[in-house]
Amino acid sequence: MTAHESMILPVILSGGTGTRLWPLSREGYPKQFWPLASDRPMLAETAARAEGPGFLPPMAVCNEAHRFLVAEQLRGRNARIVLEPAGRNSAPAIAAAALLAEEAGPETVMWIMAADSAIGDVPALHVALAAAAAGARAGRIVTFGMKPTAPETGYGYIEAGAELPGLPGVRDIARFVEKPDVTRAAEFIADGKHLWNSGMFVATASVLIAELERHEPELLAAVRAAVEGAKRDMDFVRLAPDAFLAAPSISIDYAVMERTKHAAVVPAAIGWSDIGSWAALWDISPKDRAGNAATGPVEILDSRNCYVRSEGILTGVVGLENAVVVVTDDAVLAMHRDRAQDVKKLVDQLKAKGIPQATEHRRAYRPWGHYEGVVRGERFQVKRIQVRPGAKLSLQKHFHRAEHWVVVSGTAIVRRDDEEILLRENESVYLPLGCVHRMENPGMIPLVLIEVQSGSYLGEDDIVRFEDTYGRA
After folding, report:
1. Do the Cβ atoms of 389 and 446 come closer than 8 Å?
2. What are the counts of helices (DSSP H) followed by strands (DSSP E) for the chain?
3. What are the residue boundaries of the Mannose-6-phosphate isomerase type II C-terminal domain, all occurrences included (predicted)?
4. Which of 37, 81, 399, 422 falls between 20 and 30 A from 214, CA-CA?
């Protein structure tokens, strides 16, 4: 065993969209990038559980559209970021991670986890991880089984078998059980043998690859071709699109775990939640004496057992019970907590009607920072733009619009054709239609400016890029 193989490789799967947490979580900015269970975004919180002695720098697998969001939240961790051209469920993502891990050492122990789970007891997690890693080095694919605290119908279950010889805390798996109804879930809690399926796995790269070869050879062949044809730039590994999309879309549970003879489980009580709905977030949130959980500028009167969240607008709730109210800058959700699983149906309905708020926020994130619309009218719109320290926009021009930039805070260096202009607070620059321009933040604080666009067409696709730090076309 090499020094590399004696350590654990955290593999973070960040491909989900968190539809049931709409309107906060949307495809353009899903739940793993939001601070839900703490004051840190969930992806950053997940990575923090897997750092320090004994851990290798993390690997993250994500949608190409989210690559700079992931890179920003994993900054300073020397992470390798694997880009999927499109989501193909967990088995292809894990196959790609295993093949890349194998390059450094086939016996590398991989700790595979979702980017969007909450864990309340990290020391207990590490105890369970140590047992799982021992099982992995013995040739097992080990999952974590969460001791149930309620008859939850939104999770799959695992029936644990006998403890494996020589592997304290690691048990055989008698069977996997699909999501039950509430009566059967209550029976599972009563018998003490059933655990929630957490979707975390620990295994060596060689064992995962061998089991994928045994049970899903076509999937493994497609992903292997995608890895061999991958383009690597900066910290990104761009999987070859055609090859990766040839892989079947299937979960690792169906592809391997329910078919392999090497599956095992570590029972654990670590305060785990997949935060798969607003009701699940209410479960783990601090509450007042009336059972209400509130985040943001919220006032609650004569209400009980509610979850109320506002991302900026003062929100008042009076006389409600078991309700969820979530307010963002462009959408409001109000429902009974018992209907939390039906939010996905609402989002599907919005998508069918072509309503943009179904998938996108008013704030749009870019590798250099973000922007948001302030007002839009006929032939003009106004945006607020924030640029990170040291970041710069692409060198570009527009065919249909002119722009006027006014610096609100910070300092900007603006290139306009052959000029270079330094702008400070309350200074501005005009960019006529067709001029080649670029903006950079040379300072140590965020650059904030107001952009006024005017012209016959104001779409984001009216950009011709000549040069871009972030490799965008």
Report:
1. yes
2. 11, 30
3. 358-468
4. 81
- Mapping DSSP to helix (H, G, I), strand (E, B) and coil, where does residue 2 land? coil
Q: For 46-58, what is the mean pLDDT?
A: 94
The closest alpha carbon to 40, from 116, 142, 131, 124, belongs to 116
The order of strands in the sheet holding 363-366 is: 363-366, 369-377, 380-387, 447-455, 401-409, 428-431
Q: Hey, what are 94's tokens?
A: 């894990």
**Residues 270-294, mean pLDDT to the nearest whole number:** 94
- The number of CA neighbours under 13 Å toward the Cβ of 36 is 32
- Look at residue 420 and give its three-state secondary structure: strand
On the 0-12 / 13-18 / 19+ scale of CB atoms within 10 A, 368 is buried
pLDDT tier, 114 (very low <50, low <70, confident <90, very high otherwise) = very high
Nearest residue to 392 (alpha-carbon basis) of 295, 472, 318: 472
Residues with Cβ within 8 Å of residue 165, at least 6 apart in sequence: none
C-alpha torsion sign, points 29, 10, 272, 188 = positive
Token output for 99: 């093949």
Q: For residues 247 and 254, give the distance between their C-alpha atoms in angstroms, rounded to a whole number.
A: 14
- For the stretch 55-99, pLDDT in tens is 999 999 999 889 889 998 998 899 999 999 988 899 999 999 999
pLDDT > 70: what percent of the chain?
A: 99
Kind of pairing, strands 80-84 and 236-238? parallel
pLDDT in tens, 393-421: 999 999 999 999 999 999 999 999 999 99
Domains belonging to the chain, first-starting first, are 8-273 (3.90.550.10), 289-352 (no CATH), 363-467 (2.60.120.10)
Q: Which two tokens stand for residue 218?
A: 């076509």
What pLDDT does residue 351 have? 96
Distance CA 208, CA 215 (A): 11
pLDDT of 319 strictly over 90: yes
473 pLDDT higher than 80: no
